């Protein structure tokens, strides 16, 4: 039996599927994240309901976006995110509960290609372009 397809995490009306997801996407947009791809995992993975993959132009921007995102969520929701990878800034992972966020430098993102693991064939390229 084929694995169920993982869909982009935007509802039919074009808006994010949860308040936490919306806050994450808004924060990344404010900080000029590039190639932001939200992926719905609800019912397909127990680790989270959504995954967001984004890029920053430099290690400094990646670290800054991650720290600001955690600070904004703490301010808005009263809780921050657990963070890994802040020391190098190549790939910062934020566990925000129902939303997991991966922020990469472009070269590192290209190397790991997480979109290919979580999106149906052909969808990752279309989502980025």
Molecular structure report:
The protein has 129 residues and is α+β, with helices and mostly antiparallel strands. It has one domain (19-128): Beta Polymerase, domain 2 (2-Layer Sandwich), CATH 3.30.460.10. 38% of the residues lie in helices and 21% in strands. It has five helices and five strands, in the order αββαβββααα. It has helices at 19-30, 59-77, 106-112, 114-118, 123-128; strands at residues 34-40, 50-55, 82-84, 91-95, 99-104. A five-stranded mixed sheet has the order 1-2-5-4-3. A hairpin with a 3-residue loop joins β4 (91-95) and β5 (99-104). α1 packs across α2 (59-77). Residues 1-8 and 10-16 have low confidence and may be disordered.
CATH class: Alpha Beta
What fold name stands as the CATH topology? Beta Polymerase, domain 2
The CATH architecture can be given as 2-Layer Sandwich
Overall number of domains: 1
Dominant shape: globular
Question: The biggest beta sheet, please?
Answer: 5 strands, mixed
User: Separation of termini?
Assistant: 31 Å
SS element count, helices:
5
């Amino acid at each position: 039996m084929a694995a169920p397809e993982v869909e982009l995490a935007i509802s039919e009306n074009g808006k994010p599927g949860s308040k936490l997801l919306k806050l994450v996407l808004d924060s990344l947009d404010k900080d000029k994240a590039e190639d932001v791809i939200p992926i719905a995992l609800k019912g397909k993975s127990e680790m989270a309901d959504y995954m967001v993959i984004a890029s920053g132009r430099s290690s400094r921007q990646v670290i800054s976006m991650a720290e600001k995102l955690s600070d904004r969520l703490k301010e808005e929701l009263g809780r921050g995110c657990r963070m890994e990878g802040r020391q190098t800034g190549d790939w910062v992972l934020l566990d925000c509960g129902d939303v997991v966020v991966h922020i990469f430098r472009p070269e590192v993102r290209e190397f790991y290609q997480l979109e290919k693991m979580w999106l149906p064939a052909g969808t990752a390229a279309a989502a980025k372009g």
